[in-house]
Amino acid sequence: MEQNDEKWMKEKRRKGGERRRPGGGRPPFVERRKGERRKNSSAMVPKEKKNLWKEKRVVFIGCGNMGSALISGILESGLISKDKVLVTDIRPKRLEYIREKEGVSTTEDNREAVEKSNVIVLAVKPQVIGRVLSEIKDVVTGDKVIISIAAGITTGFIEKALGKEVSVVRVMPNTPALVKTGASGLSPGKYAGEQEEAIAEQMMRRVGIVVKVPEEMLDAVTALSGSGPAYIFYIIESLIEAGMEMRLSEDDVRKLVGQTVLGAVRMVMDTGESPQVLRARVTSPGGTTEAALKYLEKKGFQKILITAVKEAAIRSKELSTG
Ligand SMILES: NC(=O)c1ccc[n+]([C@@H]2O[C@H](COP(=O)([O-])OP(=O)(O)OC[C@H]3O[C@@H](n4cnc5c(N)ncnc54)[C@H](OP(=O)(O)O)[C@@H]3O)[C@@H](O)[C@H]2O)c1
Hints:
Helix content: 40-55%
Largest sheet: 9 strands, mixed
CATH class of the largest domain: Alpha Beta
CATH topology of the largest domain: Rossmann fold
Strand order of the largest sheet: 1-9-8-7-6-5-2-3-4
Oligomer: single chain
Order of helices and strands: HEEHEHEHEHEHEEHEHHHHHH
Bound molecules: NADP nicotinamide-adenine-dinucleotide phosphate
């Protein structure tokens, strides 16, 4: 960071607000969010007190990427013991893998598994959900909790398919759940109470953070955090490409880019400063960062990204309404 900026930022912090920058105006590219505070702003779910899974038996229907990540999360954290976890899949190889890895019981019989469990996690692809629900419909009783992670499948769809008043909690996770750094949106269905919501939330917390949102906001969550890792991967890819084009070695480029992205994210998470402020600190007038950011601004990069995310939300809505 260059001296001018440092002085300006110190002064800004001391005065507790925005002030004119030496040379006039706001720091380059530091924009405030326009518009009102979000009406539907979510609450980060508060810290849990009691393990609600103690008396539960759970079945995971579908043991692919997400299902197995969740199973590892709840077992490693001690939320539940392995003798209370049942897993189903149509691929015997997957069942063999999870049996060996986690020591859980498995079956290919969804109905039998549901009968034996009081929490049912639907972790199959969205296009399979309808088939699975009609298969288990008769054995789902009103005292069971259904947690669905299927993208775009509404709680209303599940309730209707099951044809009874059953607690359904819908969750939208993302792939970093595989490395226990996930970000999930959670919405309870019509018949789910606080307890059922908390059961789902306790599971998702084992693989990351959880925010509770009204169900209609899950399209926005899908667009932001569900698809979000891909946007960041895209940026990482582009930075790697830039480094290579400037003739750095691939090995060095990967190290530099990976650590830079990690460091930037840590600064946002750990300092509590806004990304705008952090960005201003590395952007000195006439400097290198400013040259790059000016170009991005001229090309409308931020607008493009915002529009792209909104496109994802539109697509999510289209998919969930068929
Ligand atoms: N992966 C993500 O990043 C992500 C993010 C957010 C939400 N989700 C949601 O999470 C759910 C699971 O995604 P995933 O990536 O883990 O999928 P996945 O890897 O395909 O896992 C689903 C597993 O369920 C099996 N299956 C298919 N039909 C079944 C049935 N009738 N009974 C039991 N098992 C059955 C599949 O077998 P086959 O492969 O033979 O079909 C597969 O092994 C999806 O609904 C997805 O929308 C995923």
